[in-house]
Design brief:
binds S-adenosylmethionine; Rossmann fold; 9-stranded mixed sheet; 496 residues; single chain; alpha/beta
């Protein structure tokens, strides 16, 4: 069975396009997607921010994901492919947009979204719905794509979600942006929808329901349908009403994540559970399947689980899947994580198939480690973490270099030079198979020296292998910080 086979209650590490391609037609009831918005920003997490405030140097933060787009050969190929494929659901939109827009990051982003939303259409049942969360950076173009892929007649609403409870802005030449847009489309006319309600406020009640009957029930008077002929009014009782129907302005307090919210997991762009619970309740039934193809820290999966729906979450970040979502959903019975190596053999296979994906995953086998930014060389460093207790006068960073295949002593010396730069306290050389250090390697290790924490002495250069990870050997590191919360963290244990 493919690692990406369709299996509800599963989190997948991978590009959602690669994962969704494996799934059968009409298998999902509801899709919520909160993809990169083409904001041209990097979304960072700060190590240890709970105790230390803002990041002071670039080493103190890592990029959870990037939202910058460039015109590349791949983008060009995708545009040409869709332009030539008259049956592609986004064919007309991409032909038009390619005519109108220059070959820049915007067009690259839109063709990326066109390919992925086309897959989502295939997966959605006729009774299903899709909610696309975006912001004004590209919402106008995204709606064109959605109209083309899902049909303009299936457009149901544009929802305005107020994302900040209150925000000071330094915008000098424009109004500060306070909202995101959520486009809601049905797959077809048969799509399930249950209107949602909020309790009425005391003010609304006292203004609207001004009468009280002999039983003490509050009511208001309303004209019947054919009031012109009958001239009668009927009583609408307050206690018969489900509340105030929710419209397209989702602005009320409690629907945002405040900085101090206990829900916060330290993942940038995390959405509140209340937002997702509203969408899931309106557009799905218990037991149905809810997909989030860009699941981040797993808010949709968590809300679906709370509401007794089945979930599917996909993310391209191993940090999001292995550290945050997996932990958040650990109580979901039968929950599985796919797309990650489960033994040494599958780790070898991942390295051969996609060395970059392998490196990003391999660093997360070390407690508290996160992969480095996608396009940076960073002197061969593939990931980093931060010690819970910094050595005196040091910053406490630990860096990792991953080698899937053979390596040379020079590469190990490069790691040593990172330590000499004084910013880094320890370096870990990560290999697939366990290495037996040669005399040259041992010399480099000795030259790097050691440090003491409590009663333990740690070599500043350590060797760590994926083989040891699967043998459940303890990592060779001192206590490390959780990169999301800044607190201490547990060892990673491989999934059986
Ligand atoms: C805006 S965040 C989603 C946040 C999420 N709604 C939450 O509440 O945590 C977008 C996510 O999409 C992921 N991502 C970017 N490109 C992806 C792709 N091609 N396939 C799957 N995930 C992707 C990023 O790693 C990031 O976690």
């Amino acid at each position: 069975m493919s690692e990406f086979a369709f299996r509800p209650n599963t989190l997948y590490y991978g590009d959602c396009l690669d994962v969704m391609k494996n799934w059968p037609d009409a298998s999902v009831d509801l899709i919520y997607l909160d993809p990169p918005f083409k904001s041209d920003a990097k979304y960072n997490i700060l190590f240890g921010k709970d105790t230390e405030g803002k990041a002071r140097d670039p080493m103190a933060q890592f990029t959870a994901f990037q939202d910058t787009w460039y015109w590349t050969n791949d983008a060009n190929e995708s545009v040409e492919k869709i332009k030539g494929a008259v049956g592609h659901p986004a064919h007309k939109a991409i032909c038009g947009l390619a005519e109108m827009l220059p070959e820049t990051g915007m067009l690259a982003y839109l063709v990326y979204m066109a390919d992925r939303t086309a897959q989502m259409r295939r997966l959605l049942k006729d009774t299903g719905s899709i909610y696309l969360h975006c912001d004004p950076s590209a919402s106008h173009y995204l709606k064109t794509i959605m109209d083309c892929v899902f049909g303009a007649k299936n457009f149901r609403n544009e929802i305005v979600w107020r994302k900040y409870a209150g925000r000071k802005s330094n915008a000098k030449v424009k109004y500060p942006t306070q909202h995101d847009c959520i486009f809601f489309y049905a797959k077809d006319a048969a799509a399930h929808f249950a209107p949602q309600y909020l309790p009425m406020t005391d003010l609304e009640i006292s203004k609207k329901y001004t009468n009280v009957d002999e039983d003490g029930r509050r009511y208001r008077l309303a004209w019947g349908r054919n009031y012109q002929t009958k001239g009668e009014q009927r009583k609408i009782y307050l206690d018969d009403q489900p509340g105030r129907m929710i419209g397209t302005l989702w602005v009320e307090d409690g629907l945002q994540l405040n900085t101090s919210s206990s829900e916060r997991l330290g993942y940038p762009t995390q959405k509140p559970l209340a937002l997702l619970e509203r969408i899931i309740q309106a557009s799905s039934n218990k037991g149905e399947v809810v997909l989030d193809p860009f699941c981040g820290c797993g808010t949709t999966a968590h809300a679906a689980y709370n509401l007794k729906r089945k979930f599917l979450g996909i993310d391209i970040s191993p940090f999001a899947i292995t550290r945050v979502c997996k932990d958040r959903l650990k109580n979901a019975a039968g929950m599985e994580v796919r797309g990650l190596p489960t033994d040494l053999q599958s780790a070898h296979a991942m390295w051969k198939d996609n060395p970059f994906k392998f490196e990003r995953w391999a660093v997360t086998t070390l407690p508290g480690f996160v992969p480095n930014d996608i396009q940076t060389g960073d002197g061969g460093i593939d990931g980093r973490g931060m010690m819970l207790h910094k050595p005196e006068g040091e910053k406490g960073y630990v860096v990792a270099q991953v080698k899937g295949g053979s390596f040379t002593p020079d590469q190990l010396r490069a790691l040593l030079s990172q330590l000499r730069g004084k910013k880094v306290s320890m370096g870990v050389f990560v290999t697939l198979e366990k290495v037996k250090p040669t005399p040259t390697m041992l010399k480099v290790q000795t030259d790097a020296g050691s440090l003491t924490q409590g009663t333990h002495k740690y070599n500043r250069i350590q060797f760590w292998s994926i083989a040891e990870y699967f043998e459940k050997v303890r990592s060779p590191l001192p206590p490390m910080r959780d990169p999301g919360t800044g607190g201490g963290m547990q060892e990673t244990i491989p999934t059986e």
